[in-house]
Amino acid sequence: MGAPWPADLPGVLTLPSGRRVLGRGLRSAAPEPPPEFGVYLLGRRPADAGWEQQWVRWRDFGLPADDRELGRALTEAWERADGERVEIACRGGTGRTGTALACLAVLDGVPAEEAVAFVRRHYRPRAVETRWQRRFVLRFGAG
Prior knowledge:
The protein has helices at 67-80, 95-107, 112-122, 131-142, and strands spanning 12-14, 20-25, 37-42, 52-57, 86-90. It is of the alpha/beta class. It has a single domain (12-142), classed as Protein-Tyrosine Phosphatase, Chain A (Alpha-Beta Complex). Strands 1-2-5-3-4 form a 5-stranded mixed beta sheet, covered by helices on one side. A hairpin with a 5-residue loop joins strand 1 (12-14) and strand 2 (20-25). Helix 1 crosses helix 2 and helix 2 runs parallel beside helix 4.
């Protein structure tokens, strides 16, 4: 197990519990040191990255194909972020990644109705791109 992400690394979201998760777009180069675990939110299975990963089928601007699969992947990411380098990524790093980070914030205790604003304030101002994604975060918090 490596050291957690540095708080000043671009794209790192520090949750209220102190856990740090890297959000990024896969168009960008992988960070150094590399993640120990990644959750990839894509329409197609990603190539093997060289570290442990989970793929959640999720088309751009849409919602995850399987809510429960996303919930399991994010729960594992949240648990592992308490000591491991975890990343959440999609192609661009804004909509799907922002939505997943907002759901992680809910798992960490941020009220669902505040999670999108939290992620926009601490990760990217335009994170969570569609109203459907915003509603998804609310539903995630209710379930």
